[in-house]
Design a protein that fits this description.
Blueprint lengths: L2 H21 L1 H33 L5 E11 L2 E9 L1 H24 L6 H20 L3 H19 L6 H31 L7 H9 L7 E5 L2 E4 H16 L8 H4 L5 H10 L1 H11 L1 H4 L3 H22 L5 H21 L3 H28 L17 H15 L5 H15 L5 H27 L7 H5 L6 H26 L32 H10 L2 H19 L1 H10 L1 H8 L4 H48 L7 H21 L1
Antiparallel strand pairs: 1-2, 3-4
Amino acid sequence: MSMKALYLTIPLAPLFGAIMAGLFGKYIKRAGAHWVTILGVAVSFICSVIAFKHVVIDGSAVFNETIYQWMVSDGIKFQVGFLVDKLTAIMLIVVTFVSLMVHIYTVGYMKDDPGYQRFFSYIALFTFSMLMLVMANNFMQLFFGWEAVGLVSYLLIGFWYKKPTAIFANLKAFLVNRVGDFGFILGIAAILLYVNPSSLDYADVFKFAHDGGFKGQTIEIFPGFQWSVITVICILLFIGAMGKSAQVPLHVWLPDSMEGPTPISALIHAATMVTAGIFMVSRMSPLFELSDVALNFVMVIGGITALFMGFLGLIQTDIKKVVAYSTLSQLGYMTVALGVSAYSAAMFHLMTHAFFKALLFLGAGSVIIAMHHEQDMRKMGGLKKYLPITYITALIGSLALIGFPGFSGFYSKDAIIEATKHSELAASGFAYFCVVVGVFFTAVYSFRMFFMVFHGKERMDEHTRSHLHETPAVVTGPLILLAIPSVIIGAIVIQAMLFGDGSSSGVILDGAIHVAKNHIPEHGMFGEWHGVFGFTWHGMMQLPFLLAMAGVATAYYFTLHRPDMAELLKRKLSVVVTVLNNNYYFDKFNQLVFAGGCRKIGRLFWKVGDTRIIDGLAINGSAKTIGWFSGVVRHLQTGYLYHYAIAIILGLLGMLTWLVTR
């Protein structure tokens, strides 16, 4: 098989499975639906491993070719093309492996659901959409994948369409992402407008940027204010990333999306849709490196998200909501890394986070299955002895999340903190404060959840307790397989990811990302490399490790040792708790200003524009005018012959008078 055929197989295998399960599900039955989609994603994963070996390990040439030309308009080519370089290869491995684990897990989680075939069709289609986004070599295909993952996420979040809360959640996700996507498409339009000659191909745009094509180009958005074109383009593209990767203030859709089945939480919020924005900015590094303003903007947004979304995880009682807010916070860490030009660290954390966050989501799902679909942690406790495999894997996921030494999250998160510390950009001080303080709160909410669920007093009812047992192998198997990289992948790849050339990126991403020389500190972004043990020891001597351990101790004290103190603290800080319970009033603001404002504008157009102007004046008004005029004119139609004779005579006299006197 040629490499081109292999690369085509990667996205098309899941698409084939989605079509078979979706269109022929009632013929192939439930078993056929899960087998065809699992095999499709498994084939895609195997091909991705081969591609990774070919591009990264063997060092073969980058594949950048057009697969199909759709059309040419005004000299601009709209094409389907693949770019498979080291950055793509990493994403292919992550997306297909996590997707495969989710597909297998779904067999157990959704076994009694009447929409079984439909669900498998959706998650396979989602995998295809993400792979098309990742493999794109031009902005048209990128936008196709971008919108496709948004569409399928809408279908997945609202999968249980008879639940009003699920319908509200998927509509909310769809609309919030439309806001980000509007900025994204404006950024693409600006690229088309200012790149000469106009092109949607990455290589052409990056070459134009490298040759200084954007230098000196300005745009007047507001009268009297000149903006650098490249800054505007980067900020607009990043607004798209803010929607997909759920950054403040476009984060509000992600917690509500927990209304969907748990497997899609692991798929969408660990390895695919929410990481699309991080991947896109990394891919666009040749553009972002030209604008310090854009990088500072990215850094500030990331810092705010990392810290303030972590606060919200402290007061959640829904097990999935805790993991959801954790995802928001960790995406903030990745965004901060992008802002300090540490794209390799962002991708490193994206990879490790995909494994341990999928593990935590699926672990939460295992608990939910055992608890007969109860998600309130206040009704759990003491599950350690009933769910031993879930307990151990949840502990591994939690330790990786807080960055405990030796686990994958430790290496990637510490790399981000180090890069932020060494950055010389204006906003780096603020971002560093956010990511360091965020470590403490990450440990608090992570182990608060862990202790509430698996330790302490058993708070479930007797019926639930009597039926508690470990979930089946089809559920625990993916947990074990995800736990392995959650422990070891960080230590294995850190040198290759970060320290390959001693400065901006490791050998894995060499050539796939671009970092300007003025953004590389004198001694490198991540300090000096003294081996895995040296990096681990150095990290254990730093403030973030101490804060993480303090966070675990705090969670233990308030959750298991003195839960009464937690209630007392909650009463003392009732104002803060109220603000957190209301999500900083983002939802209420959006409902009042945007949703309420749109409804009022719509009502105005309805009452005034439609009812009064269109119906009242244009349609009913014209009908009434014609009716009135007809009522006047019909009086001339008397039916008497002499009246008509007089009218004819008067008409003739008038014509004769006009002919004689002209």
